[in-house]
Automatic annotation (TrEMBL):
Keyword Manganese: no
Gene3D superfamilies recorded: 3.40.630.30
EC number: 2.3.1.109
The protein, known as: Arginine N-succinyltransferase
Source organism (scientific name): Marinobacter koreensis
The organism's place on the tree of life at top rank: Bacteria
Classification lineage: Bacteria, Pseudomonadati, Pseudomonadota, Gammaproteobacteria, Pseudomonadales
Enzyme kind, highest EC tier: transferase
Length: 373
């Protein structure tokens, strides 16, 4: 399995992913022109010289090197909300109190906001059903953090992920059903398709701006606020192990939660290591009992490559990584070159390294979603 930046030759594969992923996965819509623009924007983003994050979007694909098949996608939006508003509902508690009458009432509300504008968003994680195999999902999820550790100047200090909310087998959201009845007479799939295509004006025009009192909603709508789709739970658990937590912000359409973490505190970023390459011509493909799987990457931009290996070996000094010669060739690495490594299994108890991860660090199917920003 090889992770690399998306390329124009991936258009057909991306279209198939967009078609099979279904409503709610607004990162990739089955529109060839829109997908081509997304690919071109990603290619241009990888090629930019960046000092502070802007509207860059980095889209990666997971490729089977033996067949060339595209197994899945994963992405990073460097600065969400730059070109189009990034809307959420803030789930909050309000207390109404009359001292003179001695009456007090506590109610939950949802208020539309743009709280996360400018934050980095991880998104577009999708593993095709025919290619679901051991560790593929973990690789798609964690490789983004390895890339961010390598290039921290390209990302915001706060990182978010929008998780898909609850919907039924037909793709209908109980939360949206209530909103549709009272505010926006539009099918759920139509609304998410508009957002996926980049059209968000209808949110300002039709969606409520004043606080919504949740006790006035239907029981089904209230029950799913802040909840995730059953197929999204594994992706959420992976992010929770990285240190992501909800802060009360939910999606406008299905009320799925948004989780956040500080860039420098994300587990995988704290565990990422920069080292020099030692080539091992004698390495074999069979896993070693004493070696844990690790993600290794070449640390580049447009030529970024990463993969998973069970016979990489981080030497005790932490300054060198011994990897198989054929693996180094696949990644475009040479002896004494720079390699970045990350254990596949997150360690929630990890401590920051004695030295910075980088010199300027101080400056699945129904998983994460990304609206068009």
């Amino acid at each position: 399995m090889l992770i690399r930046p998306v390329a124009p030759k991936d258009l057909d594969a991306l279209y198939r992913i967009a078609d099979e992923s279904g409503p709610g996965f607004t990162s990739l819509m089955p529109d060839r022109d829109a997908l081509l623009r997304k690919i071109e924007h990603s290619v241009e983003s990888f090629a930019r010289e960046v000092e502070t994050p802007s509207d860059e979007h980095y889209l990666f694909v997971l490729e089977d090197p033996a067949t060339g098949a595209i197994m899945g996608t994963t992405g990073i939006e460097a600065c969400a909300g730059q070109t189009r508003p990034l809307y959420h509902f803030h789930h909050n508690t309000v207390v109404h109190h009359s001292r003179e009458l001695g009456l007090r009432k506590q109610v939950d509300t949802l208020t539309r906001c743009n709280h996360y504008t400018g934050c980095t968003e991880i998104c577009s994680l999708y593993l095709r059903p025919d290619f679901r195999r051991a560790n593929a999902g973990k690789l798609l999820s964690r490789v983004r953090f390895l890339f961010m550790a390598q290039h921290p100047e390209r990302f915001s200090s706060t990182v978010i992920a929008e998780m898909r909310g609850v919907s039924d087998a037909a793709g209908q959201s109980p939360f949206w059903s209530w909103l549709r009845e009272h505010f926006v007479d539009m099918e759920f799939a139509s609304a998410t398709s508009l957002v996926g295509s980049g059209y968000t004006d209808f949110i300002d025009e039709l969606m409520p701006a004043a606080p919504l009192y949740t006790h006035l909603m239907s029981r089904d709508a209230r029950a799913v606020i802040g909840q995730v789709h059953p197929h999204t739970r594994p992706a959420l658990r992976m992010l929770e192990r990285e240190g992501f937590r909800p802060r009360g912000f939910v999606d406008l359409f299905d009320a799925g939660p948004t989780v956040e973490a500080e860039l420098r505190q994300i587990g995988s970023i704290r565990q990422s290591r920069r080292a020099s390459v030692i080539l091992d011509a004698n390495a074999v493909d069979a896993p070693h009992d004493l070696m844990a799987p690790m993600i290794v990457a070449n640390g580049r931009l447009s030529d970024f490559r990463a993969t998973l290996t069970e016979h990489g070996n981080l030497l005790p000094t932490g300054e060198s990584v011994k990897i198989a010669s054929h693996l180094a060739e696949n990644l475009g690495l040479e002896a004494d070159g720079v390699v970045w490594s990350l254990p596949l299994q997150p360690n929630s108890a990890s401590r920051p390294h004695e030295q910075p991860v980088a010199p300027n660090m101080n400056a699945h199917r129904f998983g994460e979603r990304q609206h068009a920003h």
